[in-house]
């Protein structure tokens, strides 16, 4: 039931986000999907995953979602390409990855800065960090209080209300350069955006600090 509700409320929206990111990846890319959830959004993009021969590790801390994710991957014939892993992003050690992707998952984490830095350290020098999520344009104390409460009605964690300056600061504090913040769609009050960031390299293993 939780997984069913999740697919109705989340994957309907995030499938287009996944597609936007997946089509940007190079053929044969190794992708770390942070917070893969039930995998429904990824499974709906199976055509791209197959065409690009992507190799995906999908992390999540929710065992129920991951069980559903394994079924989704089997139904989409993606078991050879997508490996769901029960792990928090902070504990995961793997890679090197060509990309890490946070779809509606970055700003619900307790420490987004640490999460960005942790995955960035597992990327190739040319690797990219992608994030897609909702941004709110005007600060609203009411919305900031209300959004976390949605979890009590839906069982789904939607995280905190995110504003552009907070989001940019998270990447800057992680020492990862935010190269692009594109609006995919939006209204006067909010927008769905795609962020692309790079780690860079100084030739001594250190990432470059954000501009
Ligand atoms: C709103 S859902 C997004 C799911 C999927 N990425 C999508 O866009 O359809 C956020 C997911 O992040 C997962 N999550 C939360 N904390 C996490 C952590 N520390 N490590 C990995 N995943 C986490 C949640 O369990 C949930 O499945």
Automatic annotation (TrEMBL):
CDD domains: AdoMet_MTases
MF-aspect GO terms: methyltransferase activity
GO terms, biological process: methylation
Keywords, alphabetical: Methyltransferase, Transferase
Domain of life: Bacteria
Name used for this protein in its record: Class I SAM-dependent methyltransferase
Organism: Pseudonocardia xinjiangensis
């Amino acid at each position: 039931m939780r997984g069913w509700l999740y697919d109705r409320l989340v994957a309907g929206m995030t499938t287009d986000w996944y597609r936007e990111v997946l089509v940007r990846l190079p053929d044969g890319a190794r992708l770390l999907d942070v917070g893969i959830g039930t995998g429904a959004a990824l499974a709906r993009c199976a055509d791209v995953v197959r065409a690009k021969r992507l190799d995906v590790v999908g992390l999540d801390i929710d065992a129920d979602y991951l069980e559903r994710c394994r079924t989704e991957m089997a139904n989409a014939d993606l078991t050879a390409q997508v490996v769901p892993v029960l792990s928090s992003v902070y504990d995961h050690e793997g890679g090197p990855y060509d990309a890490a992707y946070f779809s509606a998952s970055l700003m619900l984490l307790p420490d987004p800065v640490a999460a960005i830095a942790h995955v960035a350290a597992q990327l190739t020098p040319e690797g990219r960090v992608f994030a897609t999520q909702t941004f709110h344009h005007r600060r609203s104390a009411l919305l900031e209080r209300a959004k976390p409460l949605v979890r009590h009605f839906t069982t789904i964690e939607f995280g905190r209300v995110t504003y552009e300056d907070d989001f940019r600061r998270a990447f800057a504090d992680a020492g990862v350069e935010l190269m692009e913040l594109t609006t995919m769609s939006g209204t006067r009050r909010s927008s769905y955006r795609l962020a692309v960031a790079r780690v860079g390299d100084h030739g001594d293993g250190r990432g470059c600090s954000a501009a």
